Every structure is written in C-alpha cells, then in structure tokens.
Amino acid sequence: MHYYKVIVHGHSLPPQKENIGEDTAKRVPLDKRVYFIPDALTSEIMWIGVTTFILVLLSVWFFHAPLENHADPQVTPLGTTAPWYFLWIQGALKMGDKVLWGIIFPTVVLVVLMILPYIDLTPSRRYADRRFAISAMLVVMSGMTVLSYMGLAEYGVNTSADAEILHHLTHEPAHNKMGILLPVPYDELAPGIYTTRQFEAEEGEGEAAIAALNAYLSQAREGEIIVEELRSTHHPTISDVSDLRFRPVPAGTRLEDVLKEFAHEIESENKELYNGWGMIIVSDHQENLRRVDVLIIWETVEMEEGEPVLVNGEVVPILNYVDALSNEAIPNIEDISLATTADYTITEVEGTTVVVDANGNEVFSSADYVLVEASDGTIVSEDGTAVLSADGLLLLAQDGVPVTIPQYTISEDHLFIHRNAAYFMN
What we know:
Elements: H1 2-9, H2 36-61, H3 87-93, H4 98-119, H5 131-150, H6 161-170, E1 192-195, H7 206-217, H8 221-232, H9 254-268, E2 274-286, E3 289-299, E4 303-304, E5 307-308, E6 310-311, E7 314-315, E8 319-322, E9 329-330, E10 344-349, E11 352-357, E12 362-366, E13 371-373, E14 379-381, E15 386-388, E16 394-398, E17 401-402, E18 404-406, E19 408-418
Antiparallel strand pairs: 1-2, 2-3, 3-19, 4-5, 6-7, 8-9, 8-18, 10-11, 11-12, 13-14, 15-16, 16-17
Helix pairs in contact: 3-4, 3-5, 6-9
C-alpha cells in the first residue's frame, strides 16, 4: 500500500521547501526519483537474501536453542511481561481498576490517535506552524514511555524472596537467561540430597554440619514438614523422614557452585527468610531423565505489605504451641489463654481427670494425664510437661510453662533434566 501511494502521488518535498498548502509531490525532479520496479525491488530482494543468510549462519553456529517443555497456560513464569508494544497497557493496569485501565483507557487512547489528524487541519507542514500537533505528539510519547516503564516486571511488583531465589535457580531459558541449575552437566547431577548448611559451617566442618542436620531432622517437626511438602509434589524417593539423608556435594563441580550461590542468596534475605536454609534433591525419574527438587525452609515471620515487620531492627517470628496429645503444632497462639482454677474445677472420675467449667460442662478429660493446680492458678500436669488452655487443649509445657516452636514455611520448585539436553551459560 505504501509503495502504491508513492507511485500514485509521488514524494513530497521537505516542509521548508514547499509553499504552504501546495502539493509538491509531483515536483521531485525525474533524475532524483527512485522507481519501485526495478530499482527498489531488486535492492530489497538483495538485502532480504543477505539478512536471511546471516540469520541462518548465526542460528547454526552461534546459538543453541533446545526444545523445552510444552507451554502450560496454567503457569505464568515469574517476571512475564507483555510484548514491548503493549507494555504501556500493562503499566496502566498497575494503576487501579482493571476494566478502566485495561479496556476503557486503551480504547480511548487509540480513538484519540485515530481522530487526531482530523483535528489538526493546519495546511502547513512546517514545524513552527504545527505547535498543537507536535505538542500532542510529545505528550503521547512521554505518556507511553512512562507507562511502558511501569509495565516492566521490576516496577510495582513486590515478589517474595523465596520466589525470586527459586526462579533464579530453575527458570527455563528466556531472553538469553536461564536458571543456574540448567547448565549443570548431567553426569554431575549425582542422585542424592544436598544442603546449603554444608557451606554455613566453618572450613572443614561441612560433613559434621550435615551429620548434625540429619540427626536433628530425624526427630524434629521440621523434618516431618519437609516430607509432607515432598509428598504433595509426588516425589518418587522421599516418603518418610528416614529418607532425608543429606550428603556432601561433590567438590569441584558446578553443582557445588550452584549450592554456594544458593546459600549466599538465602543469607542475603535473612530477614524475610529468617533462619532459612535450602536443599537440592537429585533423583532418577526415568532412564536418562533426572528430577531436581529445590526447597527453601525458613521460620515464618510477621509480614506487612510484603516486607518483614521489624521491632528494634529485629524480625518478629510467628510461634506455635504444641498439642501434648497429638504432638501437632497449634497456630494463632495469641488467641489462646490458659485455664485457671478460678473458672474451672478439677475432678477425678474412675481414674480419669476431668475438668469442668462454671456451668458444669466438661472441658477436658484424660486417663493419661493427672492435672493439678499450679502456684499461679493454671491447670497443669503433675510433672509440669503439659498445661491446659481455656478451650480445652492440652499444651506441651516445660515446668508448667507452654512450649513454643517456630512456624515453618517451605517453598518448593522442581525441574527435569534429560541427559541429551545441553544448556550453555551466556
């Protein structure tokens, strides 16, 4: 269409060389005209051929683009943005109502751009005579530039630290970037469970730190939480706490470098990822196919607007009581009050301790625990290892004082790496 218009109407002279309102398209001298056929056509065919040759050469010898997983419409990768020409709409969406800024606003902008040529009826094309049109153009360009910047993934999006770290380790190749786990050679991905705790220990004490972690997780609730998380992802080899046996990462491998960087990133976010640590599980999934799981475990802290709450520069951990009967964690400890003999009565019925309220309603009964009144009026077990709450929960205690444990959070991601999938770091 453009070439057709040029052939029919010809080229115009520069604005400063034409008389206002005069059509100068036919005044271009014949010796300065370039005809589409054959001059422009043959020139463009040549450049298309040269460009195609260069692109093929670069694709074959300088770029490696292996096939990746099928596109999943249910999963949006972290940092995904619209194409550059729609970034301004994505930026507008961050300003509020999605219907207003995502549908109405872009429609109005496009309609205004369509009718703008019919508003500016100035016959002169000289810049000094087109102040309104030029001003409108500058306003639109400035607005588009600002909105496009707002559409970037880095603007106005508060991504959690664990999501950022997992993305850095596992994300698929895009825009010349990839997760740092992908380039690890297949043969270096020896099946096993590795942890960042190895690099938190002093020089030469990594194996001792791993042994201590194995012993701790075999008895602590933290180990049970990790196993529950892995079960939810249908992990093929982890089904019990006894399966969590960490081992040192092979020295001098790229996997070791990845774990070191993993440990450094968790440490750099030590307020949000309080007492956090990471683990990488490599397991054989199929022949020539290995599954790599990445987990971050940390003690949950109070958050406000995506940032940790600080009191005197320190985070505020979220703590749980422990049910003495089931050994399960009980959240929301601020809503739990202890039972006292001022409101409850302790009786014994046929060897069973029974606690009733002022209305005679049974609150708690147990044949395994003998409850008595403590010096402060609370109702505790004889050995002080349990204390009763006002809502009838028997809480684990030490010397009559309820025991609190951290509330743990786990973030997990995994990927599959085939023996023949060769990745290269840029």
